[in-house]
Amino acid sequence: MKKISRRDFIRTAVIGGATISLGSAMFIKPMEAQASGKYDIGQCKSLKVTCVSELGWFSNEVLLKQIMAAPGKMQANQWAVPWDPKNAAGSCTLVEVEMLDGKKHKFLLDTGWNKDYMDQAFQREGIDKMLKNHEIDFLIISHEHLDHYWALETTLKYNPNIKIIIPGTFYPEGLEYLQGKDFPEANTSNKIPHKGELVKTEPGKVTQLYPGVAALTFDLPIIVRVRGEQSLYFNVKDKGIVCVTGCCHQNVLTLSDFAVNNIVGGEKMYGLYGGLHISPFGPINEAGMKIVKGMAKYGYKKVASNHCTGISAVQAMIAEGYPVVKGTGRFGSQSDLYIGNGDSVTFG
Ligand SMILES: [Fe+2]
Ligand SMILES: [Fe+2]
Known about the structure:
Metallo-beta-lactamase, Chain A, 23% helix, globular
């Protein structure tokens, strides 16, 4: 696995202020832990999460066939696998967070895979207008996976100057894609160079985005040669911590445990939204069941997991008696057992 130079991170830690310049990219200055070792990310009033699209791809069979045919299989570089563009959809989430003073902020988590599919989803949910009107503060990318990042052009075509926040673990291809690059072998391209501020989050460091809202990049190798995923923590006043994820390749227990052990307010876990990557390709296995059963200890009050969680994993959560938030099964989502395309859930 490619190692990231520690020098890159050391260079980020010296100067005060919100962000620190590093060539063309910026790192957000990470938070300092309290003497107790915990991070006080502040509080927000509530958040509304809208699933713009949770369907990563249309057919598991087609996707798996392409992965297994690639040299090196699961370790193959995603930017060199000849993915079938007709099988591409994408994951994208709109987050609207209300501050304690009533002020509201909107941002996007991920931007999907298939540009046309995402454009339709953007128009359906009004994201195109929000981007044009600069109502969306930034796009934060959970990880470099094709189904979360490759329809970057759909966001940039409505606002090429938008601030973008990526994990500091991106590979060179992912960074080149931001500048506008064609990857014909993988049937993907970004023809609109990003002109706005680019910020990176340092793995293992809590980074505050607003009062009560923080990102954390977990550094780990992920299938089809991706590294690192960042997830979001919200501290909702009087309710508790809400975790919002892209794919949660680091696993939901690792994600939740971090909040319990390291974030002020983590003794009360309130909600969960996003992909949990438990049984994305079919029936849940023993390891997946262990994760589902392990979730019980957090006592989540609202569980809204979709995307790569897998229908069998959601069914297992329902069987365990977890408060799973149901959806409508519209716009291509494959079940109404979870929050799907066009559905929203409010925490707070
Ligand atoms: Fe995904
Ligand atoms: Fe992923």
